[in-house]
Each structure stands twice: as C-alpha cells, then as structure tokens.
C-alpha cells in the first residue's frame, strides 16, 4: 500500500500560480501516509467516482516552501470546501457542471420566449438577468476548491467576459437573426423529415448521388525513353579563364549506362567521340521535377538530367545513349555550338588615347574593338556631364563575311551543321568600329561598354558584372578597356571693349593711356596668354609683338605710343581661343589746344559802346573749357569759365551798369590737355560803357490769378537813369490795348490793370522804356501772365444712389458727398432745418474738389447757402443745394386678426383650444426692414403642475410670418413676445418705445385612446353566425377620452389578403362590447385592428403605442387538394397537399396496401423514401371534429431513382500504349430510355484534385449497357443519369 502511494523523485522546479492550479504541469508529491487503521481513503474515492469522469488529480498545495527549507519536506494541501466524506470530488464536479448546463438550457428557453415578441425591454431584462446569474456562478466556483474547476482570478474574469459577450450576442434579436441561426444549427445537427412510412429519416440518405452513380475507369499511356541535349535551349561559351562548361542532357523514363557525344572542331570540321561511362555518369546525374515534354498527358515516372563537362570550343552532338537494359534510347537531334565568350573594349585613336583633355569643336574617334562569332552586337553608354545615353551597334562583322547566322540564329532544337559543310563561320572574329564624334559639349565625356552579344546569343553584360564600381573613373575598367574618358574644355574669346578703328584712343604727349580687353572663358583654366601686334603710325619703326597675361575676365593694356594694336591670338591652359571684334585698337596723339580771339564793340546810336563781342576760334580735342576775368573800374575782379563744345564760339559782354571794363582770357583746356596758360596781353581788350534804360517784371509778378471783374497788380523793375516813361499793352485773345506811364522815379513800380471782365489768360507786355536822357529802348522781356477765372467757385451736394435724400438708422450719422469747383481750400456754409422747423447754420473748411463730405446726424433738410475758394467767393446752384435725411422705420410686430384669437387687452390674447399633435400656427405682421428677428418665450404647464420655459428666436424674410404652436404634449401654453429687430435695427439698437410686449395663451387637449381588453385573443365563430347569438364571445374595448366616441376598425381577411374598414359611431360609454362584426365575416381568419378613435372634442388618434389586434376565426368543413397536378414522383421527392380548415388536421392515407394516420398542419408533406402507390383516404380538422372522406383520385405513383455503374461500380486502372484503345462500359437500371453524362479528367500536379478536360452526354439509350472506346489518357466517370421518370447527379 505504501509503495503504491509514493511518487518517484522529481527535480526541483519553480512554479507560478497558474502552474500550481494545472494538474498537468505541477510536480506532485505524495502526502504523508495515514496512521495504521485509517480507512483506505483513496480507494474509497476511486470506487465512488462516476465512470464518465477521469480520475481526480491530486489535491493541490496552498503554500510554497519557505526559503531555506528542504524541498523534500512534507507540504500542506487543502481539499475541497465540501469535505469528501460527504460528497466525493468527482460528484462535486458533476454537480457543478450540471448547474452550468441547467443555466444554459434555461437561457435558451428564455431566448425563444423573448423572440416571440420583439421588445427592447425584454432583451435588456434577458441580458441583465443572465449577466448576474452567470457572473455570480463563475465567481463563486473557485471558492469550492473543486479540483480541475478551481481557476485563477484572471481566468475567472476571462470566463465571465466570454459568457457576458455571448449573452449580449444572443439578446440582440433586433439586430441579429438569432432564431434563424439556431434553427440552421438545429437542422444541421438533426436534419430529419417524416417519410410516407411515418418514420423520421434524413433526405440526403436516400437521394445522395453516390448511391446511384458509382465506379471510375482510369486510362494511362505509358511514356517513351528519350534523351535530349540542351533541353532548355540555352547558350554556352567559354570565358577568358577557360572555366569548364557543363552541357545538360535530359533523359525520360530511363537510367543511362553509356553516353557518346561528337565534338566537331571549327577549323577543319573534324570530329572526335567523347565517351561517358556509367561510373562517370552517376556523378553527373540529377533528378529533377520538370516534365520531359510539353505534352500534358505525358507524365514520366522518372526524369534525370546529366551535366557533361567540356572545355574545348566546337560543335557538340549526341551520338548514342544506352540504358541499363542495354537498349538504345531515342535521341532528339540537337546541336550545341560552344565558343569563346564575346568581348569588347573601347580606346582612343592614335596619340589621342593618352590625352585626357580636349577642346570643344574638335573631333574624337574612339574605337570599339569587338571579338566573337559574327554577327556581333555591342551596347555601350556615353556619358556627357553626368547625362547618360545608351547606343547599340548591330550586325558587326568583317567585310565580305558569309555565315548562316546572318539569316538568324541557329535553331536550338535541331541540327545546324551537316557532314561535309564548313564551320569556319563559327570561328571567333575581331572587328573594330570607329565612333567619329564632334565634341560639342563642355564637360566630362566617358564611353563605357555595357554588354556584348555574339551571333549564337551568348551575352556578356559588363554593367551587371561591375555594377558596384564607379564605371566612369574606374582604373580597373580602363585597364580592361571597358571605359574611356576625357575632359572637354571651352575655348576662350578675347576682344577690345572700348577701342576700335572708329573710336581710337587719344594719347596726350608725355602721358600714357589704357584700353580694356574682355576675356570669356573658364578662369580655372588660366592664365591666358594674349599676343598683340603693335604697328607704329606712319611706319616710323618695324612692327612689334606684345604679350599680355590675363588672369581674370577684364585686363587693361597700357599704351604709351601711338599706332595700331591688333590681337593676334589667345591661348589657355588647354585650348587656343578665338579673337572677336573689336580686334584692333588705334592710338592717336593729337596736338595741344590753341585759341585765337577777335574783339568787336557793340555800338548804340544813342549811348555809344554798350558792350563787346568776342569771336573765339579753337583747335584741339573738344570739349574745351576757357577761363577769363572781367575787371570793372580797375577795382572789382570777377573770374568766370566757359564750356565750349565746338571749335568756334561767340561770346558777348553787355554790362548792366556804366563803367570801365577790362576783358582777359588767361587759361585753356581740352579733353586731353589741362591748364594751358594763355598770353594775357594777346587775349585782352578794354572798354568804357554807358548802359541803356531797361525794364522787366518782378519774378513774383510773372504769373498772377484773379477773379472775373477784379483788377490785378504787377510789379516792374527799372534799370538806367530816371525818371522813366513806360509804354505797355494788355493782350487778351485777339484784343490789344496800349497804356503809358511817365515820371517813374522808383526802381520798382506797381501797375494796376483795369477790371478784367472776361475769363482766360491776359498778357501784360512791356513795349519800351525812355530814360531821363531821352534815350528810348525797345523791350523784349518776359510778359506778365494773368489767369482770370472763367467762372466763380461753386458747391453742391452729390446724389447718393441717384437721390438727394437718404435713410439711416436713428442715431447713426452718414456722410453726404460734396462737389466743389475752384481752388482749394473752400469755406462751405450750410443750414439745417429739422422736422419741427428749428434752423441752425454752420461753416466748414474743405480741401478736395471731389470726395469731401459733410457728416449729418439728425433727421431733417440740409441746405448749402454759401461757398468761397482760395481766391473768390462762389455761387451755389439751386438744383443741388439741399439734401434730406430720414430715419428708417423702427421695427414693430402685430398679431394678425383671426377668429381663433380672442383679445382680452392690449397685452393678452387667448387662442382657440387645440388637440394634442394637431398642427397650429400663429400669424404675425412685421413692419420694418426685413429680415426680421422676433424674440419670444414659450412656457408649458403640464397637467401635474410642472412648468417648463424656453426662449426662441423667429427669423423671417417677409412681412407676414407664422410661429408654429407647440402641441406635442397636452397642457397649457403661454407665448410671451419680448422684442423684435430687423436688418437695420438689431437687438441693441431697437428704441425702448418701439415694441409693446404681447402674451398669447392656448390650451392643448389630450388625444383619446382605445384598446382591446384582451389583445391577441383568437375569437372563434361559425360561418354566417349572427350578432344575436349569445354563445359568441363579444370583443371588449376600452375607450379613454370625452364621450361620445367614434371608432374605426380595420379588418384584414387572411384568405383573400383584402382589407375592409368598419366605423362605429356614437359610443357613449368608455367600455364597449362588440358583437355586430361577426355577421360580416366569411370563412377563414380575420385580423381586427383599431384604426382611429375620435372623442367628443373632435380630437383623433390614429397611432397607438402597442399593437392592438384580435383574431376572429370563422371555420368551415376541411378540404384537401394536391399542391401540384403531378402524378409520378421519384424517391427523395416531397409529396405535398393543401388543407383548408382549422389545424391541426388528422390525415388517413394508404401506401402499398398499408393504412397510415398522421396529425399535421397545412400543408401536409411527406418524403417519398421507397417506391410504391400513395393514396389519401380521409381528412379531419380540429374545428369541425368531423372526418371527411376524400372524393376523387388522390393517388401518387412513386418510382425508384435510376442508377449507372462504370466498370461494374469499381475503380479500374488500365495501362495502354500510344495508338491502342480502351473499352469503358456503363451499365444502367431504371425505366428506359436512359441518358447519362460522363467526363474525362486529369490530376493537377501532385495534389489529389482533378481538372475536367471534357464532358460528353449520351441520350436515347434503350439498352441497360453502353460502351465507349478511347485512346485518350484520363479518368472516366459518370456524373449524371436519367431515365423516363427520374434522374440523379453527383453532388445533388
């Protein structure tokens, strides 16, 4: 006994809480042995355990060993909460699981009940009920500590979440079709129907197609042993390292013993035979899964591929293959051409190949060197400044080259050479191709070989081999000749910028000049050497070659000698440049400037000499600058200078005052020479001058303005000896008038014109002046211009939107625009007259003729009374001197008169009572500027005294608006209007006196209600029963509201689908017993629903909270009739009859001479499980309790389903060779004629699936067997069979 309880030693392990609860993962320890004499507890528990449960796991420990304690010490375990002396562990588990199963069964029962009447409250109650019950059960389950049912808190919470989710899912009947789902699950588990023999059977057990269609015939075509060289039509070549090439040979359904292969040399077409023995072939053999041919019907049992090593170029052909049975294998004659792999390189031409720099515009001829079997194709890339372009050169071959490859590549599936023909065309050739290129772009140029292909299709792709290299600058690729590059530089240009033959450089004696050269080029490629040829003027010396070094784009050339300087060339670091125009600069050395002067006195017959004229003649390079001085009375010195653009000039000296004058020229300069001193004695003259009288207007009098009709004053300045006599005239248009003033002694005198009455320009012209000596001088001084205004200034208002009046909101100012004429500024005077007749005046200053405004605020008429500009007083036109400002009408609201309104006072109106839910509206009239905004408060007082209020906003665009009255709930309503605003006056700007508060009251009555006392009840009646029949139970109704009532009922006749309406009026009681309706009902069920109820107030209810319906069933004698006129049926069909009467029905029928009885509803249906004759004899329903004998022939004939068997219903595999035929026999049972359909299919790869290749149908077969003959491989089987009455099909 001790040994049976002791556990084997276990290694010490660390366990968590979840492991401690798992009986499969926790290491178990045996408890200490019971004292002697103790009953065998474990044996008792084992004998009491039910046979349906596995043995209980050992009890689990509740405390882990303390640190430092020995793991082999005794451990304390707690058993179940209910001691096992009362209930053993197995029974506790059984009881716990039974309780959970009972809860689930109870849940399913409740679920079926709530789905009968869909209600949200029922669904919520169902979900809450089982959330609580299942949650409490799962949470309390671990407390009992039942082994295998004690879970951790996390697992318990997870179980509660899963059960709660499932409960919520089941309760969602309005969203998910749970009943349909459970019904579908039930049918899938228990899909049985009642058959004619009154036994429940599954329909698929008797109509399954496999019981009537059986057997299959498999035809296999055996493959042929073949060998093929290069089965994938690959190309092969030997690389530059001489790597071994492996030629593939594919063998079908055989294992080779010997392989012989011909090797034909290209030079002389001689050949040798290569032999490979079985020992060598074993090392070269590889099993592959690729089909041997493209014929999908050929499925070889084994496919081998050999890899034969070869190293020499030439033509290879299979000579013989012998299998392990010493039989020759059929060979596919294929030739393989093996040669050296094609190659290509690119290099420069001649000496250019070593030069890395080129000049733009030059020519470059890189050479492509291509080796391989012609015709060759090479693809290369050319990169210019990082932009790549790809080129392909086709059909590269030597001159006069002839080859069959020129007509296309050799066939890879047949022979390409016959004995006696030459193979020299397959020898490698080397061809060079020149690539002439004009270098037209500056930058880095690079040529790179991308790929090369020979005439056999061997392709070498260098771009993939070296794709990780910098292909343009890689030294390794350059060494292999796979790239070739250089730099193309621009050519510099040079020219003179400010000197040419037409614009020479003037060089002063003893000085140097410079001219500028402009260089265009890359400065990094400098310095640039510019060679300049100097040729002296007049051939005084031989030409000289100069050299200038330029390090930037602009340099100066210093010139010290006259002559011609011509640019010969420019040379940079890499390229020689071009010389542009201007390429020649001419340097000249002009002589120093000179002066000759001729003086002449200016004589006056009255005053004598009045001045000097100096005629100047100059030589040199213009412009000139001449300096001179004037000495007056040998005391006052005045130095002056004169700029002269030409070589001749005349200078006049006219002193303003009398005296002795000396004129001296002392210095001259031109463009080249400065400060040339002149001989003063040679260029000097003296003169004594007496000045003539003169007069001129003062500067501020040259332009005057005045008003029409006013006089103007101008000031005249006099020079000479007084007193003076002045003659002048006033010119206006074509009119002149002369005036004279004498005895003028002041140097300045003011002239006053007569009144200027015409508008426009007046010119005051000085004609002559006479001094005190009697000398008279004619004057040519500037005239004084007087601008006389054509018209006086004016002021007027400008119409706003074409009107001289405007409207504004009270308290809001507007700006009235003005139109002013004249000269700014203006003073505008206007008056204001309000509607009361009060007048005020105001003057304002304005500075703009157009755009100035007058701001007005008060309502009234504004009139302009006067205007004055900067010079003149103006006029005010009567047509636009006044503007009227009006205020917008302030918004207001009035209730539109209606018979429904009763006005109690100015602030209180009562509206007619209305029924709950009826539409009603209050019409208001709005005055002002739309749109309007009306603010009102609605207060609702419920029948229980509860009051609710809310504020609303009515927005209207028209003068009249409707306010919807609230009628959804019955009670007292009060509408208080608080204010109104429109588009002009918003809520903040409405004056306090513009609105009068109004209050409207209305009472809303409740709608009446009607209901059946016993809704859902089925009332039974007989056909043509009268209302006076006391045995008929009346239909009771309950009415709510104010009597009398009018009740409208809807009748729906289920037999016809038609509906009728019945109206009952003048119901004076709230309880009503309905009897009269029975007499108008015919046979069948009639659904009666309440359509409408009207009470004494006229309130109507047409919608009811709950479905109000009762059923009246009017019965007649039952009848039975077939659902279809069909007589012949097949096994597996359903025979149906339509019953009339009150279900359930009792049916008696006879099948194959045996009487059967069945209770059913309509329709009556039975599954035909066996062939025979089926006849209905009588029918009885539950209403009439009478059995009715069936008259007429209600007999149905049931036929068996035909069958077809292929190969006697078994599976036969038949192997045939190509060209043979196989016979396939189909046998039938049933009633001829027969028709059947068969298919031929094949397997898809290695899977078990099959693909149908073809389908055939054969009909009108009178015999019970049919044979077909075929030589096509595949699986032959029947899929359908049909006889005279019935048919069967696979999968049906």
Automatic annotation (TrEMBL):
Organism of provenance: Lipomyces orientalis
Official protein name in the record: Uncharacterized protein
Domain of life from the UniProt record: Eukaryota
């Amino acid at each position: 006994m001790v040994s049976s309880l002791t556990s084997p030693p276990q290694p010490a392990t660390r366990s968590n809480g979840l492991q401690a609860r798992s009986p499969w993962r926790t290491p178990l320890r045996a408890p200490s042995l019971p004292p002697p004499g103790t009953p065998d507890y474990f044996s008792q528990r084992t004998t009491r355990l039910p046979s349906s449960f596995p043995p209980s796991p050992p009890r689990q420990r509740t405390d882990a060993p303390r640190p430092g304690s020995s793991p082999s010490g005794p451990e304390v375990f707690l058993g179940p909460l209910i001691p096992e002396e009362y209930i053993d562990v197995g029974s506790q588990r059984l009881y716990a699981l039974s309780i959970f199963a009972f809860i689930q069964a109870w849940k399913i029962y409740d679920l079926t009940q709530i789905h009968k009447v869909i209600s949200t409250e029922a669904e919520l109650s169902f979900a809450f009920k089982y959330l609580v019950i299942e949650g409490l059960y799962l949470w309390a389950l671990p407390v009992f500590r039942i082994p295998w049912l004690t879970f951790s808190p996390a697992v318990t919470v997870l179980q509660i979440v899963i059960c709660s989710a499932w409960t919520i899912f089941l309760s969602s009947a309005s969203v998910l079709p749970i009943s349909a789902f459970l019904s579908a699950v039930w049918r899938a588990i228990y899909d049985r129907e009642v058959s004619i023999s009154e036994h429940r059977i599954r329909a698929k057990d008797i109509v399954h197609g496999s019981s009537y269609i059986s057997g299959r015939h498999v035809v296999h075509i055996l493959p042929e042993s073949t060998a093929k060289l290069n089965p994938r039509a690959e190309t092969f070549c030997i690389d530059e390292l001489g790597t071994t090439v492996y030629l593939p040979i594919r063998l079908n359904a055989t294992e080779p013993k010997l392989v012989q292969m011909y090797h034909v040399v290209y030079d002389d077409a001689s050949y040798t035979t290569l032999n490979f023995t079985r020992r060598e072939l074993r090392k070269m053999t590889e099993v592959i899964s690729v089909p041997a041919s493209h014929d999908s019907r050929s499925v070889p049992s084994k496919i081998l591929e050999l890899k034969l090593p070869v190293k020499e170029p030439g033509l290879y052909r299979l000579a013989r293959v012998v299998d392990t049975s010493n039989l020759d294998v059929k060979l596919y004659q294929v030739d393989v051409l093996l040669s050296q792999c094609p190659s290509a390189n690119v290099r420069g031409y001649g000496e250019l190949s070593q030069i890395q720099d080129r000049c733009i515009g030059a020519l470059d001829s890189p050479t492509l060197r291509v080796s391989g079997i012609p015709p060759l194709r090479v693809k290369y890339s050319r990169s210019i400044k990082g932009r790549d372009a790809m080129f392909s050169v086709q059909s590269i071959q030597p001159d006069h080259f002839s080859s069959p490859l020129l007509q296309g590549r050799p066939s890879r599936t047949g022979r390409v050479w016959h004995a006696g023909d030459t193979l020299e065309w397959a020898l490698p050739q080397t061809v060079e191709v020149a690539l002439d290129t004009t270098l037209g772009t500056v930058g880095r140029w690079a040529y790179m070989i991308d790929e090369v292909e020979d005439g056999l299709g061997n392709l070498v792709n260098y771009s993939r081999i070296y794709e990780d290299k910098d292909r343009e600058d890689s030294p390794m690729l350059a060494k292999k000749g796979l790239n070739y590059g250089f730099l193309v530089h621009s050519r510099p240009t040079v020219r003179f910028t400010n000197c040419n033959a037409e614009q020479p450089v003037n060089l002063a004696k003893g000085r140097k000049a410079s001219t500028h050269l402009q260089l265009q080029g890359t400065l990094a490629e400098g310095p640039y050497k510019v060679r300049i040829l100097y040729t002296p003027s007049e051939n005084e010396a031989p030409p000289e070659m100069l050299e200038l070094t330029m390090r930037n784009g602009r340099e100066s050339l210093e010139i010290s000698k006259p002559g011609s300087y011509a640019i010969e060339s420019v040379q940079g670091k890499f390229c020689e440049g071009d010389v542009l125009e201007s390429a020649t600069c001419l340097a000249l050395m002009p002589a120093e400037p000179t002066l000759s002067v001729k003086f002449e006195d200016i004589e006056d017959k009255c005053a004598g000499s009045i001045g000097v004229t100096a005629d100047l003649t100059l030589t040199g390079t213009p412009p000139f600058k001449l300096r001179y001085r004037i000495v007056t009375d040998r005391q006052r010195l005045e130095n002056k200078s004169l700029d002269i653009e030409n070589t001749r000039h005349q200078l006049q000296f006219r002193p303003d005052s009398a005296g002795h004058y000396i004129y001296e020229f002392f210095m001259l300069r031109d463009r080249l020479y400065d400060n040339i001193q002149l001989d003063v004695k040679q260029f000097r003259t003296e003169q004594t001058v007496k000045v003539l009288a003169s007069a001129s207007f003062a500067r501020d009098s040259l332009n005057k303005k005045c008003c029409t009709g006013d006089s103007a004053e101008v000031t005249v300045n006099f020079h000479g000896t007084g007193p003076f006599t002045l003659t002048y005239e006033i010119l206006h248009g074509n009119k002149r008038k002369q005036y004279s003033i004498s005895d003028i002694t002041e140097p300045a005198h003011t002239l006053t014109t007569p009144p200027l009455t015409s508008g426009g320009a007046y010119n005051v012209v000085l004609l002559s002046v006479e001094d005190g000596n009697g000398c008279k001088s004619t004057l040519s001084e500037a005239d004084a211009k007087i601008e006389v205004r054509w018209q006086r200034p004016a002021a007027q208002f400008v119409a706003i939107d074409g009107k001289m009046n405007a409207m504004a909101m009270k308290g809001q100012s507007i700006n009235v625009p003005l139109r002013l004429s004249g000269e700014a500024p203006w003073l505008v005077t206007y008056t204001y007259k309000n509607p009361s007749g009060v007048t005020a005046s105001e003057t304002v200053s304005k500075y703009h003729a157009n755009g100035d405004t007058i701001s007005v605020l008060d309502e009234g008429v504004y009139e302009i009374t006067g205007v004055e500009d900067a010079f003149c007083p103006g006029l005010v036109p009567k047509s636009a001197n006044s503007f009227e400002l009006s205020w917008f009408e302030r918004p207001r609201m009035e209730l539109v008169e209606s018979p429904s309104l009763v006005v109690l006072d100015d602030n209180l109106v009562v509206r007619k009572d209305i029924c709950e839910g009826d539409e009603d509206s209050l019409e208001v009239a709005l005055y002002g500027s739309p749109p309007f905004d009306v603010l009102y408060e609605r207060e609702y007082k419920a029948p229980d005294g509860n009051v609710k209020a809310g504020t609303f906003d009515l927005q209207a665009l028209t003068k009249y608006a409707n306010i919807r009255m609230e009628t959804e709930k019955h009670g007292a309503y009060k509408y208080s209007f608080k204010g109104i605003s429109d588009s002009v006056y918003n809520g903040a700007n409405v004056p306090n006196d513009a609105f009068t508060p109004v209050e409207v009251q209305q009472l809303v009555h409740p709608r009446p209600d009607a209901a059946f006392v016993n809704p859902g009840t089925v009332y039974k009646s007989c056909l043509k029963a009268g209302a006076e029949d006391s045995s008929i139970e009346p239909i009771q109704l309950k009415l709510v509201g104010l009597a009398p009532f009018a009740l409208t009922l809807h009748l729906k006749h289920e037999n016809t689908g038609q509906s009728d309406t019945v109206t009952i009026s003048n119901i004076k009681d709230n309880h009503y017993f309905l009897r009269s309706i029975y007499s108008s009902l015919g046979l069948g069920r009639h659904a009666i629903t309440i359509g409408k109820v009207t009470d004494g107030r006229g309130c109507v209810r047409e919608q009811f909270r709950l479905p109000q319906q009762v059923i009246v069933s009017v019965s007649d004698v039952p009848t039975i009739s077939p659902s279809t006129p069909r007589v012949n049926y097949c096994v597996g069909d359903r025979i149906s009859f339509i019953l009339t009467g009150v279900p359930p029905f009792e049916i008696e029928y006879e099948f194959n001479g045996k009487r059967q009885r069945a209770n059913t509803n309509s329709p009556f249906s039975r599954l035909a499980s066996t062939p025979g004759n089926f006849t209905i004899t009588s029918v009885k329903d539950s209403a009439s309790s009478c059995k009715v004998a069936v008259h007429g022939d209600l007999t149905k004939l049931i036929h068996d389903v035909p069958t077809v068997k292929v190969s006697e219903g078994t599976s036969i595999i038949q192997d045939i060779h190509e060209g043979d035929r196989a016979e396939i026999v189909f046998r039938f049972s049933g009633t001829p004629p027969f028709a059947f359909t068969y298919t031929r299919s094949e397997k898809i790869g290695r899977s078990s699936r099959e693909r149908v290749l073809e389908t055939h149908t054969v009909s009108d077969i009178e015999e019970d067997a049919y044979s077909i003959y075929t030589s096509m491989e595949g699986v032959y089987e029947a899929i359908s069979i049909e006889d005279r009455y019935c048919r069967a099909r696979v999968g049906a």
